[in-house]
Specification:
It is a single chain. Helix 1 runs antiparallel to helix 2. The protein contains three helices and seven strands. It has a five-stranded mixed sheet with strand order 5-4-3-7-6. It has a two-stranded parallel sheet with strand order 1-2. The mean pLDDT is 88. Helix content is 39%, strand content 25%. The two termini are 28 Å apart. It is α/β, with parallel strands linked by helices.
Length: 156
């Protein structure tokens, strides 16, 4: 798996999620399996089958998150610059077609959350902004077509 760059905060959130899944969800599913097993014949026990499937999904999720952590590289936020757009920058852009202004933080894929205006550096918009400076106009291919943006501000 590829290296995942993330902040200390993102790393800690991932650790907390793994801890929750292992210490809370895993015992809950084990209890469900035990309860279903006590009901008798396992060959026709839908509750048992559902609990075993949930266990498999949970274990897969835990393994996936641990894999992300094992390939994580923490970003030294003190070394982030604002001359050009890069990961961990907050970028204020203006859509030149409709004059709508938006501000996004460019983060790793694992930290992306559109509700918090955090977009992954792997998205078309973020890739189109990377390496550009304030005042640059960029044309970015998005699913609805080509959109032209102007970079208004780069901050941390």
């Amino acid at each position: 798996m590829a290296v995942t760059y993330m902040t200390g905060d993102g790393y800690n959130k991932l650790l907390a999620e793994i801890n929750y899944l292992e210490s809370v969800k895993r015992p809950e599913i084990s209890a469900q399996i035990a309860e279903a097993r006590d009901k008798g014949d396992l060959s026709e026990n839908a509750e048992y089958d559902a609990a075993k499937e949930a266990q498999g999904l949970l274990e897969g999720k835990i393994a996936q998150l641990k894999n992300i952590l094992s390939n994580a590289r923490l970003i030294d936020e003190a070394r982030i610059q604002t001359e050009v757009v890069q990961i961990m920058n907050k970028v204020k852009i203006k859509n030149l077609q409709n004059n709508v202004t938006m501000t996004y933080s460019l983060v790793s894929d694992s930290e992306a959350n559109l509700k918090e205006y955090k977009i992954a550096v792997s998205t078309p918009i973020a890739r189109g902004l990377m390496g550009k400076k304030v005042g640059d106009a960029v044309e970015i291919q998005v699913p609805s077509g080509v959109v032209k943006f102007e970079i208004l501000e780069i901050s941390i």
